Amino acid sequence: MDRRTVMKAVGGTALAVALAGCSDLLQEEDDPIEDAEVPDEPIEAGLQTFLEGAPAVLGVQAQYGAETAVRRINDNGGIADRQVELEVVEEGEEALENYQQFVDDGMDVTFGPISSGNHEAMVPEINDQGVINVATDGTVTTLYEEDHPPEDNQYSFRFQNHDVMEALAAAIEAVELLGEDEIDTYAGINPGYAFGFDEQEIFAAGIEQLTGAELVYEGFPDLGTDDMSTHIEEVNSEEPDVLFSSCWGGDATLLLEQGHGAGMFDNVELLVGPVLYGSANDLSEDLTDGPIRAGSRNFYWDQPDTERWSPGDELVAEVQDEYGVLPTAHFMSGYGAVTAWATAAEKAVRLLGRWPDQEELAEVLTNHGFFTPAGYHTIGPDHQGYSNAHFGELAWSGEYDAAVIEDVNVYAAKNVSPPQGQTSLDWIESW
Amino acid sequence: MIESFVTHTLNGLYYGFILFMIASGLTIIFGVLGVLNLAHGELYALGAFVTFTIVGYLTGLVASPTGPVSALVFAVVVLLGSLAAAAVLLPVGAIVESVFVRPIYERAEVYQLLLTYALLLIFIDVMKFGWGATPVDPGVYSTLNQVPTTELVGFGYPSYNVIVMVVGLAVFLWLVWFFDRSKTGRIVRATAINRDMATAIGVSTDRTFTLVFAMGAFFAGFGGAMVSIGPGTAFLEMGLDPLVLSFVVIVIGGLGSLKGAFVGALLVGVISRWAIWQYPPVELAAPFAVMLAILLVKPEGLFGTWGEIE
Amino acid sequence: MSRFPLVEDRDGQTVVRIPLTRGLGLTPLQTVFAFLGLVGLFALPFLAGLVGLSWERLFRGILFGLAAVGLNLLLRHTELVSFGHAAFFGGGAYGVAVLAAHYNVSEGLLLLLGAVIVGTTLAVVIGYFVAGYVDIYFALLTLAFNQVLFATVFRSGFFNYNDGLQVRIGGDRPTLFFLEWTTLGYDLVLYYTTIVLMLVMLLAMWKLINSPFGRALDAIGQDRTRARFIGIPVEKYVWLSFTISGLYGAFAGGVYALLRLHVQPEPTLYVFVSGEILFMAILGGFTTLVGPLIGGIILVYLLEAARFWVEYYHALTGLVLLAIVFFMPKGIVGSLPDFNAWVAGRVREPGRLQEDVRSATAAVREGVDRATTTVRIIVFGVK
């Protein structure tokens, strides 16, 4: 492959190539962007994510991802020669206040948050302040579909797939595995807060449309609880065909631990969990037993197979080397959010011949497409990121001494999310 | 249905015993010293983190169990490790009492609250410094479940839960023995009832208070240890909700009453598990609703005794 | 009454009092502080930026501080420790949010009125149940009511769970005085309206605690039985002061919702927010009227901004509070006179500073020694 082909494939710039993880395919050559009028000072960027406590299981991965992207950008000469300085701060419950502080501190761009409630609080403020935020997560479905449609939203973007994509992928995954006629009953154990309610509602709509299955139990243990035994006992006594759980972090390990302890996996045909793989680095070998299909949102590090896909292989090596963990989907949340903005910024410089202002950059980000080691991503007209969704059989890898997923199914965004302008639940009903 | 009922009740008892172990330290300290220790949850969390280190080390020394007997040996090692972890809390509690709490016994209660809240914040960062910001898990839960317990009588129930109930009961009985029968325990009670009189008969109230605080910290840490070796993980903010739940337990039982805390914990455990079973949305509110109901009917709690440990 | 204007005899001492309202006055020093405070308050949006502070954050601090002023009515006078005041702050905030999100009320002042009504109603109801309790039972009962409220909101779709509600009507922020404003204009109008109302509330609180009713509350705080004997309707008065106290929180919560334009349960209703409101009062000085306000500003600033300064920001806040407990027991405002004297003393004799350090170190060392002995005794027995 020559340089031109690679560059054309990934969006045309050296930076985009580097962030796609393909830079070794490039040879040195003059870059036209060097003529652009660009300020000398570095780009200041802020990231807020959960750095401590239970949700840090996800949040720290996002930090690693963002830092890795920034490192790659700076190693490759920055964005149009501008280096990036990333400040990372604890999200806590003060995401809105953190964003304001970032703006006060003169940040050029901000990334985060993880929490959907936090994200919801921020969107109007982002549009008031006019400093672009690319959310790593905060994936509640209704956010850009209903609450902040494109005409009201200029500067707020989100990279990670929203809930509908993984919840629907989970429903389809169950049907593919067990067969439409084999699923008569289903149950849900989801964390008792907005995200869990959102996921359960969409999964329920999806699986009922696909199979006509009947809901036999629906439990919502508290987020960060230390006991789910009541919900597990209810699943045991109802024996549903499919159990759906969007539990993540410590809740996911708790569900698997107590589930195994109470023999839950003898009583269900299948557990599908869209964020289960987020706990990959915290699972032990015995927890991966049983009929469990784990989701990994828009990124699974071994998809495509790292033996044949060098960008993936290099990324895993770099992350293992730097942080001693396997990257999960939340790693990609951080990596992709930074990459989305950085590639858009460079594209804008190329178009304008100078550094863009926030409005121009927002314009470029809308409908922007770019590569990461996870493949191709787009930001839709609704400011929502669209990428493939991943599900696979939870298993154990002796080589990495960590949980992996095997037999991975990849769901294209258009198969698990509604067309622009339609809401998810309406769309599912129209199937 | 019957089997479900039994399991739900067992789950409630299990959860109640966990709550009791967390709350016992709080009630001891409050009963004798009259200090509502807001940092109690952090002592509990510290116990969980120390357990991760000690139990992690100890289980590295023994081979993975292959049969019921070796599983039992493994469980004993884990429990000894938990005790050792809790013992680390003894000096921590003693230092907290003698350096920080002692100077302000005479001041208004609100200073004790502010002080222990400040300690709560500081402890969080101490643990962040020691074990990092992300959750840790000693990962012994599934091995503990290999210990044969209920399946001996033909009933499937996680052995860890059974172990917790047995240990919790042992903790309760030991505490009752300590305060009722042992000499030190009687001295502590005497001091709680009348400090001046205790001093007059030659009891060092200072030392008694330090001892009680250290004991309270020990049981907080032991509660943390029992949770840490269970299905959950140890994480920085893990102390906040148990602290609030401990309040509920000791208030229901009657402040300063050990038996009250025991009954209160089991009541909250069982009623809340039944409530979730029958009406899942009530999960978050259940313990507090139980507390309000009991207090509004019986204001001093079930076993209310003022200022003395019973 | 003295022959000279502004000069009074008090307990045999001659003091200068600047009268503010009938029967109430300030000492000259207090007058200076009050004047500086007023100027500071009104210039805040313009001054804060100059010294690198965020005035919106200071504004939030003032709001939490105002809730603490309300709580302090109970703490200082009836000597009741409330661990559930977030119920009223959050109740006020949700009053605004529900009216805006579900009933499309678009005028800020009406929303604020709604907030006060909702929060105060909560205080009336909760106060009815807790008025007869004292000490730790009072604290923990208020905590339980608070937590039930939190759990209800957190788990209810009507309140949009923990994602919370927008205080925007069709995407627009509310009007103020029936006018639409720009972002900055809105914040400024909201700020000045709040400041004026707050000054009225502070003045009212000052009058209240110096009224016979305030004295009765003091009597209740000192000894309920005695208060009952001299004919004070104790429960009724506690209930009333609890309600007034909740009203302050409700107002502050309402303004908070109008400022933040999005209300979630954790930052407004969680039981640890109640704790923070309590600690603001102590931090600022619960023996003073405006202390809680200062405490609110400082604690909110620490809780929100310390994470941008240091990695171990919990510990930083903890150390500040620890310092208050041991070195400024009367809180920041309450300790001002003592602090002045201490500084003056050390300026005169710098050598005594070393002495202070030495005695503090000695105290810590002694404590650790004692702790070691006790632990040794616990583990190995006497001998």
How confident overall, as mean pLDDT of chain C? Answer: 90
Question: What percent of residues of chain B are in strands?
Answer: under 5%
The percent of residues in helical segments of chain C reads: over 70%
Main sheet attributes: strand count, strand direction, barrel closure of chain B: none
Mean pLDDT of chain B: 90
Report low-confidence residues of chain B grouped into runs of 5 or more. Answer: none
Organism (chain A): Natrialba swarupiae
InterPro entries (chain A): BCAA_transport, Leu-bd, Peripla_BP_I
Protein name (chain A): ABC transporter substrate-binding protein
Keywords (chain A): Signal
Please render the helix and strand layout as text:
The complex is a heterotrimer of chains A (431), B (310) and C (383).
Chain A: H1 3-10, H2 14-20, E1 43-49, H3 56-75, E2 84-90, H4 95-104, E3 109-111, H5 116-129, E4 133-135, H6 142-147, E5 156-158, H7 163-178, E6 185-189, H8 194-211, E7 214-219, H9 229-238, E8 242-244, H10 249-261, E9 270-273, E10 292-295, H11 310-323, H12 329-352, H13 358-365, E11 369-372, E12 375-379, E13 385-386, E14 389-397, E15 402-411, H14 413-416, H15 424-429
Parallel strand pairs in A: 1-2, 1-3, 3-4, 4-5, 6-7, 6-8, 8-9, 9-10
Antiparallel strand pairs in A: 10-14, 11-12, 12-13, 14-15
Chain B: H1 2-33, H2 40-61, H3 68-101, H4 109-131, H5 141-144, H6 159-180, H7 183-193, H8 195-200, H9 205-228, H10 240-253, H11 258-278, H12 286-297
Chain C: E1 7-10, E2 13-16, E3 18-21, E4 24-26, H1 28-47, H2 55-78, H3 86-103, H4 108-130, H5 135-154, E5 165-166, H6 183-209, H7 212-222, H8 224-229, H9 234-260, E6 262-263, H10 265-269, H11 271-284, H12 291-309, H13 313-327, H14 331-334, H15 336-348, H16 351-380
Antiparallel strand pairs in C: 1-2, 3-4, 5-6
Helix pairs in contact in C: 2-6, 2-7, 2-9, 2-11, 2-12, 3-4, 3-9, 4-9, 6-9, 7-9, 11-12, 12-13
